Amino acid sequence: MAAISREEVAHLARLSRLAVTEEELDTFAGQLDVILQSVAQVGEVAAADIPPTSHSVPLTNVLREDVVVPGLTPQEALSGAPDADQQRFRVPRILDEDVAS
Amino acid sequence: MSDLTRLTATEIAGLVATGETSAVEVTRAHLDRIAAVDDRVHAFLHVDTDGALAAARAVDERRAAGEELGPLAGVPVAVKDVLTTKGVPTTVGSKILEGWRPPYDATIVQRLREAGTVMLGKTNMDEFAMGSSTEYSAYGPTRNPWDTDRIPGGSGGGSAAALAAYEAPLSIGSDTGGSIRQPGAVTGTVGAKPTYGGTSRYGLVAFSSSLDTPGPCARTVLDAALLHQVIGGHDPRDSTSIPAPVPDVVAAAKLGATGDLTGVKLGIVSEFTGEGAEPGVLAAFRESVDTLAKLGAEIVEVSCPHFRYALPAYYLIAPSECSSNLARFDGVRFGLRVGDDGNRSLEEVMSLTREAGFGAEVKRRIMIGTYALSSGYYDAYYGQAQKVRTLITRDFTAAFERVDALISPTTPFVAFPLGARTSDPYQMYLADLFTIPTNLYGGPGISVPCGLSDGLPVGLQVMAPTMADDRMYRVAAALESVVGTFTPPAL
């Protein structure tokens, strides 16, 4: 049985903000199915009472002195922006027209 | 003067320090070599000719002024395109960052500059360091100098191929699941993954933040150790950076080079010497084990029963972290923006930008990660993978109570032909079968050339406990003192 359907892949693509094509959906559905069936092997391990590891370095709450250090100028920070306006990143509209008005 | 591109970094630094050659001469020799061979190898995405020559001139001026130079001053280095370089294009092998010139240097790049090394340029890589062959670069594959119809490993195939093609004596890679060690193995070069947190990730374009580890690549173990010493150490700008001194890896490499491993206990990972590895790889590995034993090492078999689940655990953890990290590529602050016609919404532009800017493997991993983190699947996939990570760490801890370091082949197979594994993504993943456990544990690992199989290089991996990076250098240098270095046929 397939681990994942074409419709589920389309849903994942939407969640991932990827405007995938119909052809890609066909390809990815098969490939993601193979990958997911393989990685599902982790389920064979009896690990109910094992604590999870998110990170290998046992550091918590790393703090530093609150001192001013050199940073980027607005020009430098905006130097790679696709679009900028008045020292700000310019973005496409966020709200629908009728909502915005 | 003999061919400067054939020298080790140690030899180059010595000649520059005594004035027998200049940093500018060394740099020109390497730029000439790149111009002569890189159309066949494609190790570089960008060659910074002017910047390199300016850095070399600065070293020569400092020497002329009587300043004391560091141990790698005047030595050229190639940097994987995953690290930001101020004013120098940084693409991460992706179209989504094509043309981006970062406004700041990664900490490692800054340390390379301060040490007087000469950055030649940026090396090719699988897009966002996701891959094992460099075929997933958006700018075309790198080819293996041993056989240009074969892959140079990945993701850092450019950094490894640049060494094997004598385009650079040193390079920087990054290792999330084997991206330094596996290319080192298949190109006959040395690649070291430091302890996680032992090298700064500041300015390293993030793929999987709990695993990503930048590190040194070289043609000799001592050169790798010298580079490790220069780039390693605590960085306050990386909150996962370990606030402790770098173990003395240079001294360890020199100690190992004496060829004496008396008192050193090495464990062969029994799970990695059975099925799954090519006979030629196993033969070269077995011969190296005999060599290590002759040098005085005590060899035992060690079982790490959960290592067989490392690959599936990794391919849940790394994609999960990547799906979150790569959300920053939204077409707003840097890089590509597609479809902004004044009518489309931010979300539509974002989706079109990411669709156009990311390659297929990156999309696959983002979607796998999104799946593994989804409610309803989280416990069975991501959560379970994190528990398996604990068990793999316990396997390492138990093993290191018995032995000083673990050894295995670095890769299951030698360099494969281009195109052989691109149609089946999971077949590509198997290239990192033996390197991934170390990343999940967080300890250091090194690949050192140990022999040839059908004329292609085989690497031996040494894995050491966390913050005991010196141990792996000692063992690797001892092996190198017997088997020597490996030179590919003329390009």
From TrEMBL, chain A:
InterPro entries xref list: Asp/Glu-ADT_sf_sub_c, GatC
UniProt keyword Nucleotide-binding present: yes
EC number: 6.3.5.-
Cited Pfam families: GatC (PF02686)
Example GO biological process: glutaminyl-tRNAGln biosynthesis via transamidation
Catalyzed chemical reaction(s): L-glutamyl-tRNA(Gln) + L-glutamine + ATP + H2O = L-glutaminyl-tRNA(Gln) + L-glutamate + ADP + phosphate + H(+); L-aspartyl-tRNA(Asn) + L-glutamine + ATP + H2O = L-asparaginyl-tRNA(Asn) + L-glutamate + ADP + phosphate + 2 H(+)
Keywords: ATP-binding, Ligase, Nucleotide-binding, Protein biosynthesis, Transferase
GO MF terms held by the record: asparaginyl-tRNA synthase (glutamine-hydrolyzing) activity; ATP binding; glutaminyl-tRNA synthase (glutamine-hydrolyzing) activity; transferase activity
Family: Belongs to the GatC family.
Task of the protein: Allows the formation of correctly charged Asn-tRNA(Asn) or Gln-tRNA(Gln) through the transamidation of misacylated Asp-tRNA(Asn) or Glu-tRNA(Gln) in organisms which lack either or both of asparaginyl-tRNA or glutaminyl-tRNA synthetases. The reaction takes place in the presence of glutamine and ATP through an activated phospho-Asp-tRNA(Asn) or phospho-Glu-tRNA(Gln).
UniProt subunit comment: Heterotrimer of A, B and C subunits.
Protein name: Aspartyl/glutamyl-tRNA(Asn/Gln) amidotransferase subunit C
Organism: Micromonospora halophytica
Gene this protein is translated from: gatC
From TrEMBL, chain B:
GO cellular component entries: glutamyl-tRNA(Gln) amidotransferase complex
Domain Amidase: 25-471
Transferase keyword on record: yes
Any one GO molecular-function label of the UniProt entry: ATP binding
Top EC class of this enzyme: ligase
Keyword tags: ATP-binding, Ligase, Nucleotide-binding, Protein biosynthesis, Transferase
InterPro entries with a match to the protein in the record: Amidase, Amidase_CS, Amidase_dom, AS_sf, GatA
Record EC number: 6.3.5.7
UniProt GO BP: translation
Stretches that traverse the bilayer: none
Catalytic residue list: K80, S155, S179
UniProt catalytic activity: L-glutamyl-tRNA(Gln) + L-glutamine + ATP + H2O = L-glutaminyl-tRNA(Gln) + L-glutamate + ADP + phosphate + H(+)
Keyword Kinase: no
Gene3D superfamilies in UniProt: Amidase signature (AS) domain
Homology family: Belongs to the amidase family. GatA subfamily.
Subunit structure: Heterotrimer of A, B and C subunits.
Function per UniProt: Allows the formation of correctly charged Gln-tRNA(Gln) through the transamidation of misacylated Glu-tRNA(Gln) in organisms which lack glutaminyl-tRNA synthetase. The reaction takes place in the presence of glutamine and ATP through an activated gamma-phospho-Glu-tRNA(Gln).
Name of the protein described by the UniProt record: Glutamyl-tRNA(Gln) amidotransferase subunit A
Source organism: Micromonospora halophytica
